[in-house]
Specification:
alpha/beta, TIM Barrel, 8-stranded parallel barrel, two-stranded antiparallel sheet, 10 strands, 41% helix, globular
């Protein structure tokens, strides 16, 4: 089992402290959230990323993927420029893909939403897919927002050829829209490149569109069952802890970041037996 962690919890950390800590915890890889840390700024020169590419193996780590901040509801030329740069950096760092999201990020029913311009969105994905192919990389669409479910992404892939586009299956987000994990896996079979692991449960508030985050094992996400199904399906990619304390108040209030980050390794190995 290959275990990774998103660098979201390390916003204030130096890159040296981050890689040292993740090595000591026993992680295999980093999923770097781009343009989030001083050291993950896409505008930094290639020399900076060449040095990072040298540093990581010294700590027995690699980069499994890059997380862009791209969120799309329509065609966006600027987002293609961002993607191009991050695909270039993925090449330097040895990452397999660059994450994007589609749709509207809404946490409550009262949150505003933009109209999804379907034709423009599909055209953007086609251009992005070809661009990724030219770099020998993939675009990774995360199960999120209006495209959180396997059904939504299956329908998208059924309508356009995207040979260099795959999916990050965030185990929680389809459940927030009441899609069972068996259905999600069946619909995304052959397209899953990466797994985001987290746990949570519904808020006691019908106006909330998203679940409350919890430490692993304290919520309703059937992580062990999902791992078993993925193993049976032949999945051999990374399981990446996405601990979103950078913006989720319920995790900040726990004040258990390091404890939960450290315990992920044993948790995942125990359920993989």
């Amino acid at each position: 089992m290959k275990l990774a962690i998103s660098t979201l919890p390390f916003k204030e950390w130096s890159v040296e402290k981050t890689v040292q800590f993740c090595q000591e915890c026993g992680y295999d890889a980093l999923e770097i959230r781009m343009d989030f840390h001083p050291w993950s700024d896409s505008s930094l020169p290639n020399e900076h990323y060449n040095e990072l590419a040298k540093l990581l193996p010294m700590h027995r780590l690699c980069v499994c993927g890059l997380g862009s901040g791209i969120v799309l509801t329509e065609y966006n030329e600027d987002a293609l420029c961002v993607l191009r740069r991050q695909l270039e950096l993925a090449g330097i760092l040895g990452a397999s893909g660059v994450r994007i999201m589609l749709g509207n990020i809404r946490r409550c029913v009262s949150d505003s939403e933009k109209t999804i311009h379907w034709e423009g969105l599909v055209h953007w994905l086609q251009v992005a897919d070809a661009l990724a192919g030219s770099f020998g990389k993939q675009v990774w669409i995360e199960t999120h927002n209006e495209f959180a479910t396997g059904k939504a992404l299956h329908d998208l892939f059924a309508q356009t050829k995207l040979p260099h586009t795959a999916v990050i299956w965030d185990l929680m987000h389809p459940l927030e829209q009441e899609e069972p994990i068996e259905q999600t896996l069946s619909l995304l079979q052959g397209r899953i490149a990466h797994i985001h692991v987290k746990d949570g449960l519904p808020w006691n508030d019908p106006k909330k569109l998203i679940w409350k985050y919890t430490p692993l094992g304290e919520g309703r996400v059937p992580i062990e069952h999902a791992v078993r199904l993925l193993r049976q399906s032949g999945y051999n990619g990374y399981y990446s802890l996405e601990w979103e304390s950078a913006w989720r108040k319920e995790l900040l209030q726990l004040n258990r970041d390091e404890e939960c980050i450290i315990s992920f390794i044993d948790f995942m190995h125990s359920i993989n037996k």
